[in-house]
Amino acid sequence: MKFDQLIQKLLPKDDKFFAYLEESVQNLVKAAVLMKKLTSSKKTSEIEKIIGQIHDLEHEGDTVTHKIFSELNSTFVTPIDREDIYTLASSLDDIMDYMDGSAGRFTLYKLKGWPPQMVKLVDILVTSINELQHGVSLLRNIQQFDELQKVFKKVNEYENDADFVFEQAIAELFEKEKNPVQIIKLKKIYVGLETATDKCEDVANVLEGIVIKHA
């Protein structure tokens, strides 16, 4: 065992960071459920309500992220490297930001429905976030290397799936949509959703880096 790892094990640790990170990813799960519900909603009142709920969750996520940053500034010894906690919290917050932005643009752009490829991207995003929740929960027992490796592999596969759907969607959009303004609107939402899945992979990469450090 490396000397710095031994010192970390001997010193007292503040485990509230695990709780905060779990709270952050649970917030994402709630938003993902709402995003999925949004894709099948037809009534304007229901759509606006869901988008408002997602926006509220984005604010809650910001609050949790700020708690983490504040605790990092006042805690001497952390359960894992403080740089990893900071990056992990930031990446989780990024996912929420892109989900909130994509949902908000749906009404802002006065869109009438979700194209099938857009629904597929949301489905992939929901699945990826659920996998991240499992991965973050394993941080409390980081020795579960095999289980965590499964998480990294799945999230990477989902991100690749999202890239494929995104490329197909953009190609189809340019081929079939004749209104240039509509192309710009839809592409903006596609990019937001695809970027959210990229951020999921960023979280998985941070988690993998933490595992490697503690191997």
Quick tags:
83% helix, single chain, mainly alpha, globular, Methane Monooxygenase Hydroxylase, Chain G, domain 1, 215 residues, 7 helices
The percentage helix is over 70%
Number of E-state strands: 0
Overall CATH class: Mainly Alpha
- Gap between N and C termini: 10 Å
Output the helix-strand order.
HHHHHHH
- State the low-pLDDT regions, or none: none
The portion of residues forming beta strands comes to under 5%
Give the full name of the CATH homologous superfamily: Phosphate transport system protein phou homolog 2, domain 2
Alpha carbon gyration radius: 19 Å
Broad shape? globular
Please give a structural write-up.
The protein is mainly alpha-helical and 215 residues long. It has one domain (15-213): Phosphate transport system protein phou homolog 2, domain 2 (Methane Monooxygenase Hydroxylase, Chain G, domain 1, Up-down Bundle), CATH 1.20.58. It contains seven helices and no strands. Helix 5 packs parallel to helix 7. It starts with a helix and ends with a helix.
Write the layout of secondary structure elements.
Blueprint: H1 3-10, H2 16-39, H3 44-74, H4 82-108, H5 116-137, H6 145-176, H7 180-213
Offer a quick outline of the entry.
This protein has 215 residues and is an all-alpha fold. The chain is 83% helix and 0% strand. Helix 2 (16-39) packs parallel to helix 4 and helix 5 packs antiparallel against helix 6 (145-176).
